[in-house]
Design brief:
Blueprint lengths: L13 E4 L11 E5 L4 E2 L4 E10 L2 E2 L4 E9 L5 E2 L3 E3 L3 E5 L7 E8 L2 E9 L3 H4 L7 E2 L10 E5 L2 H8 L4 E6 L2 E2 L19 H10 L5 H8 L8 H14 L7 E6 L5 E2 L3
Length: 259
Amino acid sequence: MKVFKRLGLVLAAAFLLAGCKQEEDEFNGLVISSKYSFVEAEEEVTFCATFYKDGSADSSEVVNFCVESDSTGGAVLKSESAKSGKYVSLKMGAVAGGFVKVVAECNGSSAYKIFGINPSEEILVSDKAIGFAGLEVDMSKMVNTVTVSTGSELKQYAKKGGYVIFVQGNIDMSEGMLPDEDSVMDGSSATDKMNSFVAGKSEYSSYGEWIKNTTNVPASEDTKTTSISNAYKNIIQITVANNTAIIGWGGGVCSWRKF
């Protein structure tokens, strides 16, 4: 509880989380796949849209493509249609960190995929590292997009499932309980909200008093720390449903979850 860490949601950082694999009916519809989702500015990324019928790829169908949104400054599709399973090229624009949403349609089914330009060197060498995680992700089920700028909005859409969530600006998941980024989290720098939070969840009147009285208490006996930790976790924890993407939109995007 007394070790504070920072979780960054970064420009071009996509967190894709899904549950354990379950037995399902044979898939019918479109799947877009690509070896790379991020390239350098003005480079090309290739992708493939495959139409499946009763679980098997159907190469006889024609897939139509379009760019639905673009923040790279002029992304261009080399072809607006191709046979199922054939690769198509997309040339990116020149804006570092920009994204392109490509939509595919075939035989009544649709799917989309987000492609992006690698962030600038300045962002790459900062502490806002690019990250990706995924398990049994089905991009065809991610049918909604939304932009959020508050912790409550992020929590709301993350637990719904089927959303690509763009995070705009910095989000403090502690709702104002944290000090400035460069401050040491101790009793002297604790915010009024943090002090009020501790006072409301324990016998201590402030964060500093709580730290002072629990620093050398064995974990097995530190029930007060556990109680406050659980209460704080309920505020900052984000529940992410199956088939959800969380992407930092714009430079310097991050989410603070110190704990």
